[in-house]
């Protein structure tokens, strides 16, 4: 796997310095023990309140240093990637921030963290510091295990402890709130890949169509492998494991955590699936979706839940300084506002009408374009962003879905309706261009009942607004010669002209319009334009039905 870094030995210290350089001016600092002892702390800390300290191995960013700030952590101690910080590092952090009211250590339940933070706490007590430690063991992946792992639910404890410390409560009280919270948290993770560590060889243990349920935040194997399936099914499996651990009738806060590499689009799909599941009825507060406790570049997510009471709700909704903490939002329904209505028919077009020949033609065209979705996407993946097939198929499906609403007995009205449908549902530049094409053709057809002349008029308007002409390596290279041939009344000749036009784009190594214009000549050579291929296929269908 590829990574952005300089040297493996310096990646953590450089990352922490990057955090400091981009944080709010003067709010964060590091101790001068860097890089051997890596402690990030509040620059404005005056030791008048209970200090909240957490930490662990790097690789979980923004945890832990990203949560240092007013209302959350006072200091974070970092080890190397996935390695617990040393006893000396933790002890140094305690000495740096603990005042008369003492310090609370929040520790994830991993052996290294427990031992190093634990010994540091004992040494600090021997030096006269008042120190308490809370261990978080929220992972429910492995049933009946004596030492569950501490994962993203730890962030609930950071937030709750930080809130009570900020209220100037004493150490015993802050620790009690933190410990009670830790005992009421459950978490479960799911991933489609393991993570890779910069500078180390990586081999993904998962198959092409496998995911892993319950793997740890260091890439530890999960409790089971599952086949790749729709998000709703994956979430249903997780909900079935999480739900029995929750107290019946209680409200909960949900943290939706990105483990590192899930795109924001997919994270919101996951959020929708969770909140639409039976578990959604038990959620009052939502934090995320966001990368909050990651596992480097793991392509996965985790769900963490904590039972709410008034004190926890106040703590979780209180404003804090660290930007990495996502403000909690209350569970709510989607608001829907009525779209403006047009006065007549389909998007302002005439009322429906029937024509068997036109229905057969439009159906055949749409079904052909839908069947070519994967092929056109593969072709576009070599010269563009890989979505031409999906865009065209979406438009075709939309037309089929509205076929019974089309004025099929009136060609001009049908063209106008097609323009409306594609402009609304197809998306991308192709949808707009084809909407212009059909809309302009409809106007010309209404003025004079000549379909060939009307389509040429549509092409004229499309090229005027789109800017592409023959030779620019676009759908125009197939559409223009086809329509010119169609003007003579020869449908077969039009199909041949479209096919020849699409084939000609293979030798055009310079695109002057569309996404392919950003691609180099080497990548374009020998590859046909997918839009032109789609047009050629459409004319082939028309010819076969003529």
From TrEMBL:
<dbReference type="GO" id="GO:0005524">
    <property type="term" value="F:ATP binding"/>
</dbReference>
<keyword id="KW-0547">Nucleotide-binding</keyword>
<feature type="domain" description="DhaK">
    <location>
        <begin position="7"/>
        <end position="325"/>
    </location>
</feature>
<keyword id="KW-0418">Kinase</keyword>
<dbReference type="Pfam" id="PF02734">
    <property type="entry name" value="Dak2"/>
</dbReference>
<dbReference type="GO" id="GO:0005829">
    <property type="term" value="C:cytosol"/>
</dbReference>
<protein>
    <submittedName>
        <fullName>DAK2 domain-containing protein</fullName>
        <ecNumber>2.7.1.29</ecNumber>
    </submittedName>
</protein>
<dbReference type="InterPro" id="IPR004007">
    <property type="entry name" value="DhaL_dom"/>
</dbReference>
<dbReference type="InterPro" id="IPR004006">
    <property type="entry name" value="DhaK_dom"/>
</dbReference>
<feature type="domain" description="DhaL">
    <location>
        <begin position="356"/>
        <end position="544"/>
    </location>
</feature>
<dbReference type="Pfam" id="PF02733">
    <property type="entry name" value="Dak1"/>
</dbReference>
<dbReference type="InterPro" id="IPR036117">
    <property type="entry name" value="DhaL_dom_sf"/>
</dbReference>
<dbReference type="InterPro" id="IPR050861">
    <property type="entry name" value="Dihydroxyacetone_Kinase"/>
</dbReference>
<keyword id="KW-0067">ATP-binding</keyword>
<dbReference type="GO" id="GO:0019563">
    <property type="term" value="P:glycerol catabolic process"/>
</dbReference>
<keyword id="KW-0808">Transferase</keyword>
<dbReference type="GO" id="GO:0004371">
    <property type="term" value="F:glycerone kinase activity"/>
</dbReference>
